[in-house]
Fold this sequence. Notes:
Layout: H1 2-14, H2 25-30, H3 35-64, H4 73-95, H5 97-103, H6 114-125, H7 130-159, H8 170-182, H9 190-194
Helix pairs in contact: 1-7, 3-4, 3-6, 3-7, 4-5, 4-6, 6-7, 7-8
Amino acid sequence: xxxxxxxxxxxxxxxxxxxxxxxxxxxxxxxxxxxxxxxxxxxxxxxxxxxxxxxxxxxxxxxxxxxxxxxxxxxxxxxxxxxxxxxxxxxxxxxxxxxxxxxxxxxxxxxxxxxxxxxxxxxxxxxxxxxxxxxxxxxxxxxxxxxxxxxxxxxxxxxxxxxxxxxxxxxxxxxxxxxxxxxxxxxxxxxxxxxxx
Length: 197
């Protein structure tokens, strides 16, 4: 049980895919202007990460590895993720059209979101069992959610601030993203000390 807690908390705080590994930067910068869009995108990413892990881990362990087809991992995983994103898009368009419209082009971009692909591949590379891989995916999704919501708050504060003209737009956004990512450095080593294994 302790191992699952360490994996979960490490994925959320220490190995945050956006702020520590710099995966998933496109939606992080593109959808974080409004809290509702950031929340909707994050929930969609959490769902896709969990479903992608649930589908790709067995494919890797029971199909690709036994047949010596490990070199097809990236292609197969991308196809699985693309199918899951299409499923999410269909459901959102049907049942939550306002969220579908606010996410716009960024929803199909979950297919190319390297954080989702990174989670599925790094779960295999880390040698996680199925349960550990699912916990890591949940933690990674929650970490993505935390980063998006935090940065959405930072961006809303920035918009109300008096910023020099030359610093407006992308420069202040990237600076704020860098400062936000620095805030997660303080968690390094804390989780391991709280839950020794």
